[in-house]
From TrEMBL, chains A, B:
The keyword DNA-binding applies. It comes from the Bacteria. InterPro entries: Homeodomain-like_sf (IPR009057), HTH-type_TetR-like_transc_reg (IPR050109), HTH_TetR (IPR001647), MT1864/Rv1816-like_C (IPR025996), Tet_transcr_reg_TetR-rel_C_sf (IPR036271). It comes from Micromonospora coerulea. Residues 5-65 form the HTH tetR-type domain. Keywords: DNA-binding, Transcription, Transcription regulation. Residues 28-47 bind DNA. PANTHER family: HTH-TYPE TRANSCRIPTIONAL REGULATOR BETI, HTH-TYPE TRANSCRIPTIONAL REGULATOR RUTR. Pfam families: TetR_C_33 (PF13305). This is TetR-like C-terminal domain-containing protein.
DNA sequence: GAAGAAAGCTAATGAGATTAGCCTTGCGGC
DNA sequence: GCCGCAAGGCTAATCTCATTAGCTTTCTTC
């Protein structure tokens, strides 16, 4: 029998596809093995186990997300950049409902690519905030606010948490507009920086 | 041997305690049974299974959260109410790291108490927004923005997603201040209401 | 063409969820 | 007080999934 020719990468990629199809919480090693046409224990030659697969999936996802955020920000500034990155973020979460939650894991310190991808995503946000004149502690606070608002929105949306008939697209536009207003008139923390 | 004297309520409450101790994802029927001093299958006389327990846990949690939000809002208005409810929300999430994520499930339509608790939490938010003069579609958008920002923040915080040394308490204050600014100067959607 | 590492396999173990079916407790009605 | 019976708890069995151990086979390299 010829070999299946697996690599850690093919395993993680298949896991990503399955996660998007059935949801991250229903991703199992058994399903990955079945889809790749191998017996379950064979996967252990490529990944350390279910936890490690999850972490690698997170690294893949945050790298993809960071790339799309960076691309969206390219050539834009201020409110345009804010809107483009926010749209790219939500779009990624909607196209990849399984990968997206995996992307939110804290990068594993022993995986330099994971750490780098996390930093790239964060850098895309800081670049936007520079356009609003926000730096230092203000930028940290504003970046956390941006991440919170956008992440919270796409998470609640994915969970079906928005029941009212009011259009969700419209609400997201309003949320982004609210961020724009807040960033333009960023509240003074009332302490020296 | 005397009976253990379980009820659906005692089972759910013990599950809530365990979830807070070890995390919702590690909550198992086996652990609940063990803590209650019964065999695992005995639980099925009180809850339909693991999924149902999770849903009931969500109902318990959103009811608790809604109560604390309502209490925080009592006697306050405007920015004070906003700050108090936001603080109560984050506080609940920190005190109950296992219950909190369960509280985010969409209420089961066949559980009237669950639905009512969800509505109560939402009403607490609408009450705040009325203080800012936000009603109708604006209130829907603003409520989604508030939920997104606060839920996103506490979720990222719980996941350890804020790595920078900047104090997280301070960032939360700034997020709430940003919401205050946005609500006071709510962006016009540019369409008739 | 042989050696050896790498990749796959089967078998075994163990946690957890679920279902079926038994046994007993303890309450309500007499 | 006692009887009946519903409800609560149990054991046993089955299933899925994760993990480890150890065997076999396939490539690759010299």
């Amino acid at each position: 029998m010829p070999r299946a020719g697996l690599t850690p990468q093919t395993v993680v990629r298949e896991a990503a596809r399955i996660a998007d199809e059935v949801g991250l919480e229903r991703l199992t090693l058994a399903a990955v093995a079945s889809r790749l046409g191998v017996a379950l224990p064979s996967l252990y030659k490529h990944v350390r186990g279910a936890d490690a697969l999850n972490q690698k999936l997170g690294a893949l996802a945050i790298a993809e997300l960071a790339d799309e955020m960076t691309a969206a920000a390219a050539g834009r500034a201020g409110r345009d950049a804010l809107r483009a990155v926010a749209a790219a973020w939500r779009d990624y979460a909607r196209r990849h409902p399984g990968r997206y939650p995996a992307a939110q894991q804290v990068p594993a310190p022993d995986d330099p690519e994971h750490v780098a991808a996390g930093r790239q995503a964060l850098d895309a946000i800081y670049a936007i905030l520079r356009g609003y004149g926000l730096t230092g502690d203000d930028a940290v606070d504003a970046a956390r606010t941006f991440r919170s608002a956008v992440h919270g929105f796409v998470t609640l949306e994915a969970a079906g948490g928005f029941g009212m008939p009011r259009g969700v697209d419209r609400s997201y536009e309003q949320l982004v507009a609210a961020l724009d207003i807040a960033f333009r008139d960023w509240p003074d923390a009332g302490s020296p920086r």
